[in-house]
Amino acid sequence: MENDLIISELLNAWEETYKKGQLTFWVFLSLKENNKCVEEIKEFVEKMSEGSMSCEEQSLYRNLRKFLNLGIVAYDSKRVSKGPDRKYYYLTDMGKELFQHFVERNIKIFTKESIINLLN
Amino acid sequence: MKALTIRLGQFAICALVLTVLFRYALNLCIDANSTIGTTTSSIVYGGFMFLIGWYFGKKDANENEIHDIGFRFHLVTYILCIGIGYGVYHLGWNAESLRAMTITAISWGIGLTIHFIFYLIEQKRTIKGYAREDIFQ
What we know:
The structure holds two protein chains of two kinds. Chain A is mainly alpha-helical.
């Protein structure tokens, strides 16, 4: 019982640290699928991560603004019937290249059979 | 890096209004030989400048995450304070002598240059103005 409590606390602490840099990965993954507005990015992240990742729209806007200024993402404005134009974000060529390098160096390792066997 | 942000603009407008009001009050108090008025207006002006710098600086840092160790706000403050000082002098509000204003401009300018050097050093830790460790957080 006591061990369960410690494991649960350690797991939470580990996940907090682990997830800190994960949002960018999920955002890039969602934009790799197709152009998306902020609400769709949020929906994708929460659905595809099976709820393990959650993000505030405010935090997404802040990150996207930063990525825009860095030239990693760009957007097209689309008219909607009500309210202001909606921004549909996409990865620029630089963003695509960055994501590809990141995946090759950090994600593909988990698709190796020897690693999959250890994980199972 | 987008250096001219909305918050910096809002700060500049508030600082401009405050500085003009302060210069006007200072001129009146010096003309009236009021030490209390001069001291009070200076303290009030300093306090409000600090508060608006704090408020807009914090908002700017939260919204834009530009890692400039406060240099943009310092530069705008310097340009406004010194510029308005010289401007109102030529309008006839001779609260300060031209010599005193020049000494202030030079000594503050030295401080601003030192701040700029630190800013340039800090820029080596950034990518397009964003702190490396903050980009993908």
